[in-house]
What does this fold into?
Amino acid sequence: MPVIRVDRVSKRYRSRAGGRALLGRGGLFDRLRGVGRETQLVLDGITFSVEKGESLGIIGANGSGKSTLLKIIAGVTVPSSGNVRVEGRVASLLELGAGFHPMLTGRENVYLNAGLLGMRHAQVEERFDDIVAFSGIGEHIDSPVETYSSGMYVRIAFAVAAHTNPDVFLIDEVLAVGDEQFQRRCRNRIGELMEQGKTILFVSHDLGIVNTLCNRVVLLSQGKLIERESPRDAIDFYLRQVGAENGLHSFSQGGTEAILCDGRVSLFREGHELSAPGGFVFQMYNLGRWHTSTEADWQITVRTPRGCIARGRMPRLPITLLWRLDIVDGELQWEMGYECERAIEIDATELRMLLPSSMTRWACDDLSGAFPELRPEDTAFTPVTTPEPLCEMAAFLPPEGSDHPAVIARMKCPRPRITGDLINTDYITGCRLFRIAEHSPRGAATLVEGAYDWLSLRVGTGTPETVRLMGEQAGKFVLQSGGLTACFDRGKVRLAKDGVQITKHLHLYASLRVGSLWNDSTALRWERFERDGESFTAEGVSRRFPFRLIWTMRPCEKGFAMIIELEATEAFEADEHQTSIVLVPEYRSWRTEHEKGVYPDIEPGDGDWNHINRTYSPAAFAEATGPGLPTVRIEADGQLPHWMTAINTSALENARVLQALRIPDRTAMLRFAPGRHPYFSGCVRAE
Amino acid sequence: MPRMNSLVYTNAQQGQLRRLIPDIVRGRELLRDLVLKDVKVRYRYAAMGLLWAVLEPLFMMLVLTFVFSVVFRTRVEELGIDSGRKYAVFVLSGLVPWQFFSTALSTATRSLVDNRALVKKVYFAREIIPLSAIGVAAVNLAIGTLLFAVVHGTLIGMPHAAAFFWLPVAVLIELALVVGLALLFSCAHAAFRDVGHIVDAALLFGFYATPIFYWPGIVHSALAERGLDAYYPAYLANPMAGIVTVCRQALFAGTVDAALLAWPAVAAVLSLVIGAAVFRRRTALLADAL
It folds into this structure.
């Protein structure tokens, strides 16, 4: 027995436009003169029924009659023809707090509003404490609501509506209010109501929410009802169907299809959704609030079957987003930039890529891991990785054996300070989030007038093997030796033993001091990558001094042999140089050829890079041990005298260091004549 | 087993007249809340609070008593009433029911439009909106009646026993009349906003067409002087004329010409039936017109 039965419902509205200004409109005179006779058919023979416990999403463009349909079901208005039968009590959240009077206290308004929604005093009393607790209003409940912040107002209003214990719940776009935390609480509450077997009708523009909350989705289009087999089909159909409108373009090539819909990009590949229903959106943070690309007023200036150029004017920022999207070789190419009309402070800029939860593993360059499973108790977004400088490639992989392709994103970013991280969303949203973010340091956030490139992104598909190969193409080399992995990445080498990373931050790197300036190997311009069987060579050119480092590594027993040479193009002098392994802080004790000791705990007041060893004389090795960690060892092969030292970094960096330091004899400087010189020669081991 | 307050309805049934009484019974708490809301809101931020509900009519009565017992004393005696004090009570006895009639009708007519935010968003028995406006006026009527009783008691003494029967009857008829007219007018006002203005103008005229500060006898004799006797029933067609006159007779003469109440009673029942039927039929489309 359906709870709601809508039978051939049509609704015709009389147009209220026109009329002479002084005589008013819609009045008797207009009627006598026959003005305002035009009518508009908003709903045209709608028939459907909703079973108990179903949650039905209603989507459609603006003015498609969604709200009218809800109003008819709520009994607020009646159809011009046809019939609606509703069994049970209906609570409509058509507008929150419609019955609130600003001068009454929260408590009085709760009773009044609940009464309007059909509750009796005795029933309100039973639930009153729950309502107050849900709203989080606390003792303000006895203050007039006009003293409430708008957030509090909305919270108490939603709390009343959500606790009226209706049989049928009508929700019209109300989830777009309140802060993110409250919206989450609302979504969870709706989830609870669904579990209690309530019938829910849900109208929203947020296709992601509709998709996650509703087990059935219907589409209203020009007053007619269109139903597809699954919610996903209905949403896809909707996205395509409104394709002719401004701000929407659907384009495809070679089995890949992308849809740009008012600032949201959705991507499909041969029937698989590569993006989650929430799609990919761009947003900017200014004055305490995110401004999302979906709020912008979009114009598609160039449309081709394979791509488009779109401009999105942000409604509350003097910024126009400039996007160019193309599909080339089955890969979405997305150039993101923006134009700034006048100086404005932007604290952060983000691209949020929501990916389906069927992606269970991730890989960023050579690092990889698994996403924790999404569980119903996840009510907040949980970080999976910490924000790191943006990698060049991120891949999202389905479980082994799935026919779903891996999603590969490759980024080229002309701006510094862009980071990338991975997040698990809450259970209801049910997605993986890849966030590319640019955070401006305090006080330096001002954008001046002009056009900016922000990011160039390519999103395509591949297999796990392509993911691995692409990591290497990006100028990164992965060497294996037993369970030890070394990943060379532009002047630093990440070390991991059996998948557990043992280095952090700068990892294994080299640095040369000229005057007071340390020239880290990570700051060199790396080029000329060569791979020869198991070994590789890379060259890093200094941007400041006339030298380059030639870095060669190859696997050897229990580790890697490493030779670093310095090639000077002119004669120059340096103060000292070092090769260091920056280890995770779990390493507890260290040992050199001459002495051994324990790393003291790093306190916040400690200075930068404190030497812990007391002996300074050339030695053959230094090693560090920690509970459950492999012993890490740096060995020099004796070509050059190196002082082996153990160092604690600052509390901020929180790392242990083994260092091979080379200093000049007594007073002289290290002199480099033009030509090649040894810099470090030895090996790095872990067992 | 459906819960107490669960509904099974179809849109077609919503407009049925027989659902009127159950709907209003179901909404009685809401009706009370809405009346209380208006009363509370009116006096909430006033330091003297609800006291104003008493002070306002009290002040008006004092002014009237002063004006007619001191300033217009001689003019009053020409009217054939023996004292100014008695005249003040006389005016009040007409003014209290008229004030109720006038404010109730005027606010209830506009109530649907004023509360359109509610009507367009939430479904409940729409009759509750004009009824609550009448309820607010009724609160003032109750306060006014109490004050009138005090004034009457101090200036004249105990009223005739007939008053304890006829006053409630008259007020009941007036209430039914107001409810019926309010349902009709509020519904009409939603469709044509001119109705509110017409009602206000009619009420202004009604203040003079109702025997509030004179006996209807004056009208009768004035018409008779000009040989227009036949038009006197037209004067009495104003149901408030009959109601106020009966109140007066019960208070001051002790005997009542009950026939005077016949037409008001018929008018009340008619307006109630027509008002409720029209309102119910149009109620479903009200949200569209607002």
